Automatic annotation (TrEMBL):
It holds the Pfam family HATPase_c. SMART domains: HATPase_c. Residues 34-134 form the Histidine kinase/HSP90-like ATPase domain. Coiled coil: none annotated. This is Anti-sigma regulatory factor. The lineage of its organism: Bacteria, Bacillati, Bacillota, Bacilli, Bacillales.
Length: 134
């Protein structure tokens, strides 16, 4: 497998495909079952956000390897309307769709690295990394 793989998100079935690929990569990197579940949660959340709020976009999976650790970088990218108030969106419990509002704050908590950039009418990019040490 190349170091980067892209799954396009255009319909709900693509969310399932992204989860499947996330599971395969997490297993390949020998993440614990707990961290595999965390990675799948992140892939689900980011994919669903693309589908729900932007209509289409993609999820990128990148295999990372450093001296003593391996990891996965998950990038969510869309060209939707953007997030008008990132600070508010990162507050637990905040939602514009009536959901629990745990999504993006949860992704940040679950992953080892997290970065979100968004601009009105320019879309949103979320980058999250999980490391497997040892």
């Amino acid at each position: 497998m190349d170091n980067t793989l892209v799954i396009h998100i255009r319909e709900e079935a693509d969310i399932v495909a992204a989860r499947k690929k996330g599971r395969e990569i997490a297993q390949q990197l020998q993440f614990s079952l707990t961290n595999q579940a965390r990675i799948l949660t992140v892939v689900s959340e980011l994919s669903r956000n693309i589908y729900r709020y932007a209509g289409c976009g993609h999820i990128e999976f990148e295999l990372l390897e450093e001296e003593r650790k391996k990891g996965i970088r998950i990038i969510s990218l869309d060209q939707g309307c953007g997030i008008p108030d990132i600070e508010k969106a990162m507050q637990k419990g905040y939602s514009t769709s009536g959901s629990l509002g745990a999504g993006l704050p949860g992704v940040k908590t679950i992953m080892d690295e997290f970065e979100l950039t968004s601009a009105p009418n320019s879309g949103t990019r979320v980058e999250a990394v999980k490391w497997q040490i040892g």
